[in-house]
Amino acid sequence: MEKYEFIYKALFFPEKEILAIGDLHIGYDYMLKQSGVLVPKRQVNDIIEDLTKIFKKIESKKNKVKKIIFLGDIKHSFGYEFSERDELNEIMAFLKKKIPEEKNIIFIKGNHDTMDYTPKKNMKKSHLESGIFFTHGHESSLDIFDDEVEIVVSGHLHPSVALAEEKGAKREVFKCFLEGKSGSKNFIVLPSFLSFVEGTLINEYREDYVESFSIIPKKDMMKFKVHIIGDDGVLDFGKVGDL
Known about the structure:
Order of helices and strands: EEEHHEHEEEEEEEEHHEE
Number of domains: 1
Radius of gyration: 17 Å
CATH class: Alpha Beta
Distance between the termini: 31 Å
Mean pLDDT: 88
Low-confidence stretches: none
Structural class: alpha/beta
Strand content: 25-35%
Number of helices: 5
Helix content: 10-25%
CATH architecture: 4-Layer Sandwich
CATH topology: Purple Acid Phosphatase, chain A, domain 2
């Protein structure tokens, strides 16, 4: 059995039966409306539809999810918004049908999570399990360097890649995973789970990468492998520094 696999926008550890999900940014559609942008209110529906698709894919392989870990930036607004709290409750109602034990639904605190809307106010700074360290990725921690840690799983960067057939032609943007080594640890960076925007272009990391924004140094990030999410699944696409 594979140690881990990319399933749509999620990362799954079959042997551990752990599913990791990147930044949700619940309330992003509400923020757009407040800014005068007319968008349909369907962010929660999109999240639940995407989660349903992921669960079905896992179940089709005769696997199951015992634990789900959200990697921070659960909410979008830096202030308190009732709508964000209510929308998280909708998502929790769906998740409890899949994972009945609430202790197995884990929320990591991200830089946008200024309020804890989780049912029992039990958001965590990080989570370590079976050699896998789950963190948002905006600030480092001595725990990452623990000998027990083999893999660091994070979000925060919202990686995506822009592709064009020729210079000046129309280009398409795809969410992607990043995978590589920094120091003695293996890192996996997940794309955002947000459907409204694809993310931050890694094509521009060579010039615009800000060291203080990530726990991964630029010199290491340039060597990370890129796995883009396409219509036919997740595809290997070389290294960040080659794009």
